[in-house]
Design brief:
- With 184 residues, the protein is of the alpha+beta class.
- It folds into two domains: 6-36; 48-182, Lipocalin, CATH 2.40.128.
- Helices cover 17% and strands 41% of the residues.
- It has helices at residues 6-28, 175-182, and strands at 48-56, 70-78, 83-89, 92-103, 110-120, 132-141, 147-154, 159-168.
- The chain has an eight-stranded antiparallel beta barrel.
- The chain is elongated.
- The mean pLDDT is 90.
Length: 184
């Protein structure tokens, strides 16, 4: 029985290592380069920090009044194969649990659909707001993307509209940091 020597296997290891490196670089960075857009990669690039406006349908049962618009920030981290979406407001934080970016009937129109978990600040839980789950559907406008707009609904029976605009490339970690840097 012939025995494989290291000299025979070494080129395969080099090729596999090089291909792995190229795929990792493409997944992290190169997928969004203009040269690959449209003909090779159809995924829209929505990375950055976005200003968010939420308009809820919730009506206060005691007063009959609707709530004013809620403003916050969405931080999107993205590669070709993954997406992280964190929505931060003054009172809560939402994180993406599952998502899909689907091309619509028009080649240039994409829709981001997601399921999220919202965690209000601890001092608000039990008083005004509880941890809940929800879903959203956002149309992605422009290439490069300049706005995401759509609607959301929650397991608390509320729903509303959501609009992301005024994107910056810098990624912020907290609501306070984004508000201090970007203002409202």
């Amino acid at each position: 029985m012939p025995v494989l020597k290291a000299d025979f296997v070494r080129p395969f290891g080099t090729v596999v290592g090089l291909i792995t490196f190229i795929v990792a670089i493409f997944n992290k960075y190169a997928w969004s380069w203009r040269i690959f857009k449209g003909w090779y990669v159809k995924r829209p690039d929505i990375r950055g920090t976005w200003k968010v406006e939420l308009k809820s349908s919730w009506t206060n049962p005691e007063t009959g009044q609707t709530v004013p618009a809620i403003y916050g920030y969405a931080v999107v981290r993205q590669s070709l194969t993954s997406l992280s979406f964190r929505l931060m407001t003054e009172e809560s934080r939402s994180v993406l649990v599952a998502h899909s970016i689907d091309q619509q009937e028009d080649d240039d129109l994409f829709k981001l659909v997601g399921v999220y978990r919202n965690e209000p600040k601890i001092e608000l839980q039990g008083l005004r707001s509880e941890i809940h789950h929800g879903s959203f559907a956002l149309e992605i406008h422009g290439s490069p993307a300049y706005e995401l707009q759509g609607h959301y609904w929650t397991d608390r029976g509320t729903k509303g509209s959501i609009k992301l605009s005024s994107k910056v490339k810098k990624l912020y970690d907290t609501y306070e940091q984004a508000k201090r840097e970007l203002g409202r």
